[in-house]
TrEMBL record, chain A:
<dbReference type="GO" id="GO:0005739">
    <property type="term" value="C:mitochondrion"/>
</dbReference>
<dbReference type="Pfam" id="PF00348">
    <property type="entry name" value="polyprenyl_synt"/>
</dbReference>
<dbReference type="GO" id="GO:0042811">
    <property type="term" value="P:pheromone biosynthetic process"/>
</dbReference>
<dbReference type="GO" id="GO:0008299">
    <property type="term" value="P:isoprenoid biosynthetic process"/>
</dbReference>
<protein>
    <submittedName>
        <fullName>Decaprenyl-diphosphate synthase subunit 2</fullName>
    </submittedName>
</protein>
<dbReference type="GO" id="GO:1990234">
    <property type="term" value="C:transferase complex"/>
</dbReference>
<comment type="similarity">
    <text>Belongs to the FPP/GGPP synthase family.</text>
</comment>
<dbReference type="InterPro" id="IPR008949">
    <property type="entry name" value="Isoprenoid_synthase_dom_sf"/>
</dbReference>
<dbReference type="GO" id="GO:0004659">
    <property type="term" value="F:prenyltransferase activity"/>
</dbReference>
UniProtKB/TrEMBL annotation, chain B:
<keyword id="KW-0808">Transferase</keyword>
<dbReference type="InterPro" id="IPR000092">
    <property type="entry name" value="Polyprenyl_synt"/>
</dbReference>
<dbReference type="GO" id="GO:0008299">
    <property type="term" value="P:isoprenoid biosynthetic process"/>
</dbReference>
<protein>
    <recommendedName>
        <fullName>All trans-polyprenyl-diphosphate synthase PDSS1</fullName>
        <ecNumber>2.5.1.91</ecNumber>
    </recommendedName>
</protein>
<keyword id="KW-0496">Mitochondrion</keyword>
<dbReference type="InterPro" id="IPR008949">
    <property type="entry name" value="Isoprenoid_synthase_dom_sf"/>
</dbReference>
<dbReference type="GO" id="GO:0042811">
    <property type="term" value="P:pheromone biosynthetic process"/>
</dbReference>
<keyword id="KW-0414">Isoprene biosynthesis</keyword>
<dbReference type="GO" id="GO:0097269">
    <property type="term" value="F:all-trans-decaprenyl-diphosphate synthase activity"/>
</dbReference>
Length: 449, 443
């Protein structure tokens, strides 16, 4: 059964880059659905009814879509753990219990930490809690060298215990970055530092946010150390470095929200090859200066630092733990990177999917649609310039309208397809397994979000 | 580290002076800042005079930017630990191991030898001279963003005391000597641990600055006053990540494990600082655990890591760890004490800072015994108007400061005892001197 569906996927992949790729995906979907359905029927009688109603509804409504939640819960079953790592032991520690207690004091304040906490706990399709899951799936898809002793394996799930620990570290580092990023700039020169009434809340929120992030970072380095693999420690530490570096790229408003460069700041020919890290020296930072001003490559670099680096390097490190070849490790890195970029493009496109911007919604000014539109029409920069002090001063509706009128959304979709196809192509290098299948399903579901 | 010209002297301790130069610092001055006096060692260096009638001297020494008030503790120590005979013994054991100290100070002011004392900063000149340059180079090599580099390197300006790297290198070399195992490669690796200790310390300072919102540190504007707090937070993470990469490159699983303990302890210490305990007994234990995690763990584990690199056995590693733990605890106790007695100019940061942050440190906790009215203030973290001033006054009226000092002294003595378990060497002696510096520091 696996093989049959694998063949469908293979046909699919060959057609992916072509314009009809999307159509092919939709056509193949029902077949895939029935396949997974039968799987579930065999394994979990209980869940059968629920899944079947969902899927039959979808089959009757053309065009059929891949279901994100289904793809994720299927994948979770494959690697043996029920859910995201948020529920694991670190959440039960004294320190975090303490944080929860302190967070209650912040409820109702405007501190961004509350928003981050909500975002992390809300298990919807808009959050990619699945990072650890991706690492585990890649681990399982690659398998491990025969030299790995039995005691280090989690036989039922098909991954190593060390890989599971690494997946947890990946999530901890990512959350720590999100939490540290919700620190508010309280410098006396900023607006946020002026209002005495909210100052105490903000300062307290900063304290809790900073310590929580540090807690996660500290524990992730202890977990990493226990893996007893210094190449892995090096690689993952460099991903932490990339995260912090990403917050320094380009111009920023008072709260460190990124602003695009003024069009024409850089006069560089676009590079024929994509820029990436030096494979031989993790200490070397991303050479981002080479691509500034080129919307697509600048966007890629920003988001590799911001997301692709951790996911890619974690996938790579996981294969290191399993004693896999350097070549397969490189593929794992590329897979993680492209998946993260495809996901980011998908998130960037989302606010532009409806004809008018939903109330209280904003978007990043260095998101792909905005950067693409700036290239198409540099006069938009006049609007963005108003956000120099605070991005809140910008008329988002106006920009939204302008972007929708131009080619930027289509280009963003194209960008997403490019990275989806790249991720699927890299997966070819892994043997066909249920884990690889699950990764493909996740990617296809993401494409349809 | 280039500023060590102050009063380093060469004194040759014995006949073996031709093959062996022993660097040490001589000092001894009347009333304050008189010039250091010494004599050249040629032929008569063995007549090292211990301090006579010291009681009447108020010895103040300027030591690499540190001031030390040499009180009675110091004299006890001299008599116990630094007798002349030990000096000879040292010369004998060094015969097998020709040591050459590259930075020989040849300046010889006239005057009688009053006292001989090792200056750890001078015997570690080789390791510490370009210490901050190396940290800055490392930080610069990891990023393409100049602003990140600037913030991350801000506290590596060479103005700090460099206590952690200094103790780390002393222990490293004392252990190498003890194991009779010295190679440049080994010392180089141990030096990376010293770099790590200082980098982690700075990263925690950077994050503390954002948490505490203080405007000054080490006599200059703190990072949070100068840069966006979000960027400052990221710069702290950056320093940590670069330090971790550096340590991972030593390719030693055990070293990484020992050093990662520092990070978890640091954060747990910070979390402990958020809360306090009801009863007095619990409160003091809470304070001591917090102090261990926030300050002593860094030194203890860094020292242990140098032992691990030198492949010392568990006993030696434990000596290193316990020495560091005691020094760390004493250091923090003295720090908490100085918060009540030093002036703002000396510390480079405002005094009674802990009270203002709502923290009850050892002097306050001791004072609670005599003045129970402090208890409610501790519980409300000195938040009501007048609390800070009242607590400050009561601490001075009680014996809180003396008791804190006594406790610190106990830890220093324990550290000295531990150091004596290692084979004698200038570094081993240096470790004992450090205990003395810690208790007698003025800033």
């Amino acid at each position: 059964m696996y093989r049959a569906s694998g063949r469908i996927m293979q046909q699919l992949r060959h057609r992916m880059p072509a314009p009809e790729g999307r159509l092919a995906v939709s056509l193949a979907a029902p077949a895939l659905k029935t396949f997974t359905l039968r799987q579930q029927q065999r394994h979990e009688q209980v869940r059968w009814t629920a899944t079947s109603t969902v899927s039959s509804k979808q089959v009757t409504t053309p065009p059929p879509r891949h279901d994100w939640n289904r793809a994720v819960s299927e994948a979770e079953r494959i690697v043996g753990y029920p859910t995201s790592f948020l529920s694991l032991r670190w959440l039960l520690s004294d320190e975090i219990a303490n944080v929860a207690l302190h967070l209650r004091k912040l409820v109702g304040s405007a501190h961004p930490l509350m928003k981050t906490a909500k975002h992390l706990l809300y298990n919807g399709k808009n959050t990619m809690q699945a990072w650890g899951l991706i690492v585990l799936l890649v681990s399982k898809a690659a398998g491990h060298a025969p030299s790995v002793p039995d005691v280090e394996q989690d036989k039922s799930a098909g991954v190593l215990h060390s890989q599971r620990a690494l997946a947890e570290v990946t999530e901890m580092i990512r959350i720590s970055h999100l939490v540290h990023n919700s620190v508010v700039n309280l410098q006396s020169s900023t607006e946020a530092g002026q209002d005495a009434a909210t100052y105490d809340d903000m300062s307290f929120g900063n304290k809790i946010g900073l310590l929580t992030g540090d807690y996660l970072l500290g524990h992730s380095s202890a977990e990493l150390a226990n893996l007893r693999n210094q190449e892995v420690v090096e690689l993952i530490s460099s991903a932490v470095r990339d995260f912090s570096e990403s917050e320094f790229i380009g111009e920023r408003d008072e709260q460190n929200n990124p602003l695009p460069y003024k069009p024409g700041t850089f006069q560089r020919p676009s590079l024929s090859v994509a820029v990436d890290f030096n494979e031989h020296d993790v200490m070397t930072p991303m050479p981002i200066a080479q691509v500034l001003g080129n919307p697509e490559q600048e966007w890629e670099c920003r988001n590799i630092l911001n997301a692709g680096s951790l996911l890619g390097k974690s996938c790579q490190a996981s294969l290191k733990l399993a004693g896999q070849s350097e070549e397969l490790q490189r593929h794992a890195y590329r897979f993680g990177k492209h998946l993260a970029l495809a996901w980011q493009a998908c998130l960037d496109a989302e606010p532009f999917q409806c004809p008018t911007l939903p109330l209280d919604t904003t978007f990043s000014l260095v998101s792909a649609p905005v950067l693409f539109h700036l290239e198409h029409d540099p006069s938009l920069y006049a609007q963005l310039e108003q956000g120099k002090q605070s991005v809140d001063n910008i008329d988002y509706d106006k920009i939204h309208k302008a972007v929708l009128a131009g080619p930027a959304l289509a280009k963003t979709k194209e960008l997403q397809r490019k990275h989806t196809a790249a991720a699927l192509a890299v997966l070819q290098h892994f043997p066909a397994t249920d884990a690889r299948q699950a990764l493909e399903n996740i990617i296809l579901a993401m494409q349809d979000l | 580290m280039a500023c060590m010209s102050t009063s380093g002297r060469v004194v040759c301790g014995s006949r073996r002076q031709q093959t062996h130069k022993f660097l040490c610092q001589l000092f001894g001055r009347q009333s304050g800042y008189a010039a250091a006096v010494s004599s050249s060692g040629s032929g008569s260096g063995s007549q090292l005079l211990p301090i006579a009638n010291t009681q009447q001297y108020q010895l103040v020494r300027r030591f690499h930017g540190l001031s030390f008030n040499l009180g009675k503790d110091y004299l006890d120590l001299l008599q116990n630990a630094h007798s002349c005979s030990q000096n000879l013994k040292y010369s004998q054991c060094s015969k097998t191991n020709l040591r050459q100290h590259s930075s020989v100070h040849t300046q010889q002011p006239a005057g009688p030898v009053r006292e001989i004392q090792i200056d750890p900063y001078i015997i570690l000149d080789d390791e510490l001279k370009y210490f901050y340059d190396d940290v800055r180079d490392l930080l610069q090599s990891g990023t393409s963003q100049p602003e990140l580099d600037t913030i991350a390197s801000y506290y590596f300006d060479g103005q700090g005391k460099a206590l952690r790297p200094m103790v780390t290198m002393l222990m490293a070399k004392a252990i190498n000597y003890h194991l009779n195992n010295e190679s440049h490669q080994l010392v180089h690796k141990q030096r990376q641990v010293a770099l790590f200790s200082e980098m982690v310390h700075s990263a925690s300072l950077v994050h503390d600055d954002v948490i505490d919102q203080s405007d000054f540190r080490r006599g200059k504007p703190s990072v949070n006053a100068l840069w966006n707090h979000k960027k400052v937070t990221m710069a702290g993470d950056y320093i940590l990540s670069i330090a971790s990469i550096m340590i991972a490159r030593l390719r030693s699983d055990d070293v990484t494990i020992v050093l990662s303990q520092i990070l978890t302890d640091l954060v747990q210490g910070e979390f402990m600082q958020l809360g306090s305990r009801e009863t007095e007994n619990e409160r003091f234990a809470h304070y001591l655990t917090k102090t261990y995690r926030k300050t002593a763990s860094l030194i203890a584990n860094a020292l242990k890591a140098t032992a691990v690199i030198a492949q010392a056995d568990d006993n030696v590693a434990e000596v290193a760890f316990q020495y560091g733990r005691n020094i760390g605890l004493a250091f923090q106790l003295v720090d908490d004490m100085l918060d009540f007695v030093s002036s703002t100019e000396q510390m480079g940061k405002p005094t009674a800072a802990d009270l203002k942050l709502g923290l009850a440190t050892a002097p306050v906790l001791f004072a609670c015994e005599k003045y129970p009215e402090l208890n409610p203030m501790v519980m409300r973290r000195f938040s009501e108007p007048g609390d800070v001033e009242r607590a400050f006054e009561l601490v001075h009226k009680s014996h809180g400061l003396e008791q804190t000092r006594f406790l610190a002294k106990k830890h220093c003595n324990e550290a000295i005892r531990l150091a004596q378990e290692l084979t004698e060497s200038p570094y081993q002696k240096g470790l004992q001197v450090v205990a003395d510096l810690v208790i007698n520091r003025l800033k």
